[in-house]
């Protein structure tokens, strides 16, 4: 969105239910305490739908209204979590099981954001969608990555949850905070 006003940083993601968020946050805290990787604690556990983007503050209602319109004819679906995976040498995450519904939601959201709101980032379009729940990244040093990955690579983590909405997260005071939730119209 072009303009001269006050721009804010946002991203779109799916938040698991509170109990699952707490469980994943405990894992993030383990990475922070034992492996000195605290950056992942700056956001709630989430599956990213669209990477951070800037939006003019005075145009927030237009963004909100458009995202609400996007969700009106969406239906809920289940997402499975199964084990840990990594993007060496810094990222460890909980693996999301392949979901046709999640992939479709992501693809249609990219198209909507581009056509309806002018939000377009070549990086989003130029790579395959790899949904995951990050537990450590950026500040996980290579040496600690090797130690942590050796411990977590075979660790069990199996869960699932119903996706009934997605959230707009706002970057405030160095952290990502949920600012608005968009519920699917046809649960």
Structural write-up:
The protein has about 190 residues and is of the alpha+beta class. Helices cover about 35% and strands about 35% of the residues. It has a single domain, classed as Cyclic phosphodiesterase (Cyclic Phosphodiesterase, Chain: A). The strands form 2 sheets. A 4-stranded antiparallel beta sheet has the order 2-1-7-8, covered by helices on one side. A 4-stranded antiparallel beta sheet has the order 5-4-3-6. Strand 7 and strand 8 form a beta hairpin. The model has no long low-confidence stretch (mean pLDDT about 95).
Helices, strands, pairings?
Blueprint: E1 7-14, H1 18-35, E2 47-56, H2 60-71, E3 77-87, E4 91-96, H3 100-117, H4 122-125, E5 132-136, H5 142-152, E6 158-163, E7 165-172, E8 175-183
Antiparallel strand pairs: 1-2, 1-7, 3-4, 3-6, 4-5, 7-8
Label the CATH architecture.
Alpha-Beta Complex
Give the domain tally. Answer: 1
Radius of gyration computed on alpha carbons: 17 Å
Would you list the SSEs in sequence order as H and E?
EHEHEEHHEHEEE
Strand content: 25-35%
SS elements, strand count: 8
Major beta-sheet overview: 4 strands, antiparallel
What are the low-pLDDT stretches, counting only 5+ consecutive residues below 50?
A: none
Amino- and carboxy-terminal Cα gap: 31 Å
What's the short version?
Helices cover 34% and strands 34% of the residues. It contains five helices and eight strands.
Key words describing this protein structure:
5 helices; 8 strands; 187 residues; alpha+beta; four-stranded antiparallel β-sheet; Cyclic Phosphodiesterase, Chain: A; globular
């Amino acid at each position: 969105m072009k303009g001269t006003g006050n721009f804010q940083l946002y991203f779109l993601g799916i938040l698991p239910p509170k109990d699952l968020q707490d469980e994943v946050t405990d894992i993030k805290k383990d990475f922070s305490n034992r492996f000195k990787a605290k950056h992942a604690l700056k956001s709630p556990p989430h599956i990213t739908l669209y990477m951070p983007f800037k939006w003019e503050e005075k145009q927030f209602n237009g963004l909100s209204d458009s995202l609400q319109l996007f969700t009106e004819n969406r239906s809920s679906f289940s997402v499975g979590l199964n084990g840990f995976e990594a993007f060496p040498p810094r990222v460890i995450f909980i693996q999301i099981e392949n979901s046709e519904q999640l992939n479709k939601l992501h693809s249609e959201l990219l198209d909507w954001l581009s056509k309806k709101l002018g939000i377009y980032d070549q990086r989003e379009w130029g790579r395959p969608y790899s949904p995951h729940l990050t537990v450590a990244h950026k500040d996980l040093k290579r040496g600690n990555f090797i130690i942590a990955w050796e411990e977590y690579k075979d660790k069990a983590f199996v869960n699932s949850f119903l996706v009934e909405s997605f959230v707009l997260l706002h970057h405030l005071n160095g952290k990502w905070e949920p600012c608005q939730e968009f519920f699917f119209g046809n649960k």
